[in-house]
Every structure is written in structure tokens, then in C-alpha cells.
Amino acid sequence: MSPAAALEGPPGSVMDAGKSGLGCGAAPSDLLVEVDAVPAAVDAARFTPHKSQAAAAPPREAFAAAGSPVIVTGAPALHGIQTLNGSPDQTAQLPLNTRAMDVETDLFKGRIQLTIRGTPGAEAAARPGGALSCGRRSFHVAIQGRFKRAISAAELLSGQEYPKAPRTPSLMHFVFSGAARVFAATNEVHVKEGEPMHFHYPAIASAQLINVSRPGEEPDPLEAEEDVTLWAPDVAGRGGAPLASAARARFFDKPSNLAGRVVGPEYVWTMHIHQALIDFTTYKLGLPGVPVGIDLVNILDAQPLQIMAKDGKSGEYVFNLLVWSRRLLYAHADAEEAAAGSVSEKIKGRFKGLLSGW
Fold it and tell me: What range(s) does the Domain of unknown function at the cortex domain occupy (predicted)?
């Protein structure tokens, strides 16, 4: 079966997301067609997190206590390497919507603020001027800080990494290729039978906003404006004015324009990343040109989405956070319990019928 055939379903519409997925309109959940819903009977091993991530997987009661379908944690593989709010604990629940958190690794020291539509406290961000004020935007992350050493700009990567091997390589390559192209034309997709999967793209070509400033002159992270002229004075508009974000992204989406450039500790970097392709509360994905929504629960096999940046040459992470969904971890159990409950009610009904005949 071809990848496209594997995604066939009833006619529907996904957002016409361009490279940045920034258009304003209906929210992702209004546009996605539910396909590949979790069946009542599944292979439980598929819905068990990989051993490298399992320690951070929130239990059911954690989602209930948080009143949220989404919980973000650190990455257990970075225990002792990454600190979040001063703690090395990568399994702790991280703040959403309300405040920034401190993050530090061997490569970076700064702060990150996460905002996810549909989670507690996100309502303010959806108001005019807020991080989610664009109607389609489902997710926003603001990062600000300094690198601890020089990194090749071409090797400063973002993307997604999954430790499990693909069950259907052709389908996963189709999905990952479509997702990667939304962020940058320059990308690398690795999907091979029996091997962990990933897709990467240059962070400087994919971020929706980048501001480079001198220490002590950095803007408020959420109020920053596009300006990389301090770092790249040759990348400017008329009269030396900063290029618009989209123009900067297009320029650096050509590998030759990143070649020879480095990011280092001399400046404070502020980056914004936001998108409208994924509804994190349902874990549904819409790809441009694909007429159906894709249920990520059934294809990611209990592997969470990431917010990460890394040095592609050394493999070291600038930061790495895991975005867990209750559906990702427990939709299969919910389906099985619902099926069991239905059978139980049928048995009760038949038993009552038998008794009434006595």
C-alpha cells in the first residue's frame, strides 16, 4: 500500500499552512478529519514508551491532577546534563502558559516559555497581542539565552527524534517528509527499517522570529522583534534595516548562506517557534496538501513530540523537552475499557432479561 493510500479517509480539509503555518482562521481541531482512530484491541507493546523516555511518561493521575491533556517534561537521557528551573530532574512537570523556566545545558543557558492552546492558563495568550492570538496557532515557544561555545550555524538543528524503529517505514517517511518541508526546504529525514527515526532542519531557517542582541540589551522574550543584523550585518534590507522574518528564513534556507557562520556566546539570542499543524490536545496532525488529518497516536507508538535544538556535529543538545499527550499514552487503554464496559452492560442486560422470565 502506498503512503497516500494508507492515509485515505473521508473528504476533509487541513489548514493551508505555508512554511511557517501562521495563517489566521479556524483552529486545527476544527479542520482535521479523524482517521486511524485507536482500536479497542491493540498491541500493548506499541503503547509502552521507549526505555529511554519511559521514566518521564506521566501517569494517568498526573493528567487528572493537572487538569490538562498535555504535560511537558525534560528528556531522561539528559539527566545530569540538562537542568530545568535549577533541577536535574528530567521527569518533573514543567510550567505551561504562565511563566518562563530556566534551562541550562553544556551548550546553552537561558529561559524558555511554553504556550499550548487547550491547556490551563492559555486563555490569556489567545487574546489580541498574545502568543496564540492568531486563530490557527496551537503552540508557541519563546527561547532566550546565550550559547556557551561556538556552534556552526548550519549544524544548529531542530526537529523530531524517535528511538523506536518504524512499523511502516514508507508511511513514516511520507509523514516526516511532509512535516519537515513545512519548516524548511533544507532538511534531512531518516526512516529505515530497524533503526531509530528522525527529521532535522536548520533552526535559523525555521524559527519564525530571531532577535540577536548584546548582553544587557536583550528585549522581553515575548516582545522581541526580528533582527539578526548584529550577528549577520550582510543580511539586511534597504538602508541596513532588519529583514522580515520570512525573508531571513528564506535566505538561510539555502545551505550556502549558512556556510561559514557560527553562533556563539557573544550575543543573546531570542527565538520564537510556533505552528498550527498539530493540535497538541488531541495529537492530530494536518499536512498541507493532504486532505485528511493524521492521528499521531497510532503512528508514534507512545513516543512524544519534542521541543529541541542540538549541535548536529557533536550530537549535544542545546535543550530537549518532551511533549506528552494523555491520548498518546492512554487512548488504547480507554478504548479497551470502553469496550469491556459495553460487553459488561450487554451481559447485565441479558441477565436481567433471563431473570424477568422466571
Answer: 87-323
Burial label for 253, CB within 10 Å (0-12, 13-18, 19+), is buried
pLDDT digits (tens, 9 = 90+) for 277-286: 888 999 999 8
What pTM does this model have? 0.82
d(CA 54, CA 301): 12
Please give the distance of CA 97 from its chain centroid, rounded to a whole number: 15
Instruction: Please provide the DSSP assignment of 48-114 as one string.
Output: S--TTTGGGPPPHHHHHHHT-SEEEEE-GGGTTT-EETTB--SSSPPP-SS--EEEE-SSEEEEEEE
Q: Residue 147 in 3-state DSSP?
A: strand
Strand, coil or helix: 343: helix
Residues 6+ apart with CB under 8 A from 14: 31, 32, 286, 287, 288, 290, 291, 292, 293
In a 3-state reduction of DSSP, which class is residue 53? coil
Closest CA to 310 of 75, 99, 93: 75
DSSP state at residue 218: P
The grid cell for 254 is 539555502
Are 49 and 159 contacting, i.e. CB atoms less than 8 angstroms apart?
no
219: buried, middle or exposed (CB in 10 Å: 19+, 13-18, 0-12)? middle
| Residue 97: band (very low, low, confident or very high) from pLDDT cuts 50, 70, 90 | very high
Tell me what percent of the residues of the chain surpass a pLDDT of 70.
80
What are the pLDDT digits (tens) for 230-284? 999 999 998 899 999 999 999 999 999 999 999 999 999 999 999 888 889 999 9
Q: Are 94 and 345 in contact (CB under 8 A)?
A: no
Contact assessment for residue 324 and residue 53, using Cβ atoms and an 8 Å cutoff? no
Q: What angle do CA 55, 57, 58 make, to 5 degrees?
A: 120
* Sign of the torsion angle spanned by Cα atoms 36, 40, 42, 45: positive
Residue 346 pLDDT grade (very low, low, confident, very high; cuts 50, 70, 90): very low
H or E element that contains 269: strand 268-275
Grid cell for residue 188: 534531512
Distance CA 324, CA 303 (A): 8
